[in-house]
């Protein structure tokens, strides 16, 4: 163990071991692993002061760089392994990383207050706004066709994902949400209308002309890989319940549908 004159451990050896552990196992592009935020994380980790702030900064940097939340969490876990510590990063540290990551992603288009820190997805409040946009377009099309209101499905459909099963501890629930959020983002793309509505339920908006079967099949495969990568398959509904619900004829009815999907 390398220490300085004051008896404190120096960061360089741990930083090197962390990078090697991550880039040899979970990190997809070794050349872009290093960021100034990792230096701050190692320093805070060694002195035991300011770790949450440093980890949140790292999460923000990863989110802004387009790194998936699953990859970011796996990378952070490599720091604990590089220091030969038992177990995973504490839940509060993982939450700080996810909050920073969500802020980094949300800075592109969505206010941080509307982001669920566990999954990195917007909340139902944000999706309600995006639904209003879809209904405006559908209403214009209906009026052009001499219809009073859009027909069911004219504004699109909701892909509803339910992964909840039994009672799950806070850390595993957070990791499960992160896995599903990552799968949804990879399937539909950043900025797509989707949300975490609570209780292990997530939704995404499909346009009327999208291939539902193809999207659902791709999403199922990505969820399976993500929950296996984060080792949360045992606390995830198998298989996840994925269904497509046509949107009703009005925005108010769509809001009621969305609220009915939410678990307390």
Describe this structure in words.
The protein is α+β, with helices and mostly antiparallel strands. The protein has two domains: 11-108, no CATH class; 124-261, Alpha-Beta Plaits. It is 52% helix and 9% strand. The chain contains nine helices and four strands. It has helices at 11-23, 36-47, 51-64, 69-82, 91-106, 124-144, 170-188, 212-229, 251-261; strands at 157-162, 194-198, 201-206, 241-246. A four-stranded antiparallel β-sheet has the order 2-3-1-4, sandwiched between helices. Strand 2 (194-198) and strand 3 (201-206) form a beta hairpin. Helix 1 (11-23) packs across helix 4, helix 2 (36-47) runs antiparallel to helix 3 (51-64) and helix 3 packs parallel to helix 5. Residues 1-7 have low confidence and may be disordered.
Please tally the helical runs, counting DSSP H or I stretches of 4 or more residues: 9
Can you tell me the number of structural domains? 2
Across the major sheet, the strand order is 2-3-1-4
Judged by helices, strands and strand pairing, the structural class is alpha+beta
The parts where pLDDT drops under 50 for at least 5 residues are 1-7
Strand percentage: 5-15%
């Amino acid at each position: 163990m390398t220490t300085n004159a004051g008896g404190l451990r120096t960061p360089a050896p741990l930083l090197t071991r962390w990078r090697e552990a991550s880039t040899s196992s979970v990190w997809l592009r070794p050349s872009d692993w290093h960021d100034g935020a990792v230096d701050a994380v190692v320093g805070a980790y060694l002195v035991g002061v300011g770790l949450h702030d440093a980890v949140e900064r790292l999460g923000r940097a990863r989110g802004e760089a387009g790194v998936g939340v699953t990859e970011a969490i796996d990378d952070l876990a490599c720091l604990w392994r590089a220091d030969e510590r038992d177990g995973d990063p504490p839940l509060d540290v993982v939450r700080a990383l996810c909050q920073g990551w969500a802020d980094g992603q949300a800075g592109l288009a969505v206010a941080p207050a509307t982001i669920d820190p566990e999954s990195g997805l917007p909340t139902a409040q944000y999706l309600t706004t995006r639904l209003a946009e879809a209904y405006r377009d559908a209403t214009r099309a209906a009026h052009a066709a001499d219809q009073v209101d859009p027909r069911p499905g004219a504004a699109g459909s909701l892909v509803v994902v339910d992964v909840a099963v039994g009672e799950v501890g806070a850390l595993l629930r957070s990791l499960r949400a992160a896995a599903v959020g990552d799968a949804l983002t990879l399937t539909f793309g950043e900025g797509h209308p989707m949300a975490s509505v609570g209780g292990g339920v997530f939704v995404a908006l499909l346009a009327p002309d999208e291939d539902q079967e193809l999207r659902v099949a791709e999403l199922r495969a990505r969820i399976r890989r993500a929950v296996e990568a984060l080792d949360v398959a045992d606390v995830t509904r198998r298989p996840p319940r994925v269904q497509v619900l046509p949107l009703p004829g009005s925005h108010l009815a769509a809001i009621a549908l969305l609220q009915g999907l939410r678990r307390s």
